[in-house]
C-alpha cells in the first residue's frame, strides 16, 4: 500500500518538473544560472518576452521554490534559490545532447 507521504512527494516533484516543462521558463532559468540577480526588465530585455509573461513565469518559479525575489525599493531582483537547479539543468542538457547526437539531422546542443 502506498504511503500518503509518498503521494505528496510525487506531487511536489511533479510541481518542480512543471517549471522545466516550458521553453520560456527554461530561457529565464538559463539566464539566472549565472548566479547574478536580474530585474524583471533585465530578464524581459534579454528574452524579448513581454513583461507580463516574464512576471507570470517568475511567480510560478517562486511558488515552486526555484527562484527567490529580493525587493530593493521599487525594483525586484530574482536569482536561483538553489544552485542545484543549475546542476539539474546541466544534466538535462547533457541527456538532450546525447539523444540528439543519435538523431540524423538533429541540431547539436552544447551541454
From TrEMBL:
Residue ranges annotated for the HTH arsR-type domain, each copy included: 5-103
Record SUPFAM superfamilies: Winged helix' DNA-binding domain
Disulfide bond is among the record's keywords: no
Pfam families: HTH_5
Superkingdom of source: Archaea
GO terms assigned for molecular function: DNA binding; DNA-binding transcription factor activity
Keywords, sorted A to Z: DNA-binding, Transcription, Transcription regulation
Alphabetized InterPro entries for the sequence: ArsR-like_HTH, HTH_ArsR_DNA-bd_dom, HTH_MetalResp_TranReg, WH-like_DNA-bd_sf, WH_DNA-bd_sf
Keyword flag Transcription regulation: yes
CDD domains for this protein: HTH_ARSR
PANTHER family: TRANSCRIPTIONAL REGULATOR, ARSR FAMILY, TRANSCRIPTIONAL REPRESSOR SDPR
Cited NCBIfam families: HTH_metalloreg
Name under which the protein is recorded: Transcriptional regulator containing HTH domain,ArsR family
Lineage: Archaea, Methanobacteriati, Methanobacteriota, Stenosarchaea group, Halobacteria
Amino acid at each position: 500500500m502506498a504511503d500518503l507521504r509518498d503521494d505528496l512527494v510525487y506531487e511536489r516533484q511533479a510541481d518542480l518538473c512543471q517549471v522545466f516543462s516550458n521553453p520560456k521558463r527554461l530561457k529565464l532559468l538559463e539566464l539566472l544560472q549565472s548566479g547574478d540577480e536580474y530585474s524583471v526588465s533585465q530578464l524581459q530585455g534579454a528574452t524579448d518576452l513581454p513583461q507580463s509573461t516574464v512576471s507570470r513565469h517568475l511567480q510560478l518559479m517562486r511558488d515552486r521554490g526555484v527562484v527567490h525575489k529580493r525587493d530593493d525599493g521599487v525594483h525586484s531582483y530574482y536569482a536561483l534559490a538553489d544552485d542545484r537547479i543549475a546542476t539539474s539543468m546541466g544534466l538535462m542538457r547533457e541527456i538532450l545532447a546525447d539523444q540528439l547526437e543519435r538523431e540524423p539531422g538533429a541540431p547539436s546542443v552544447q551541454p
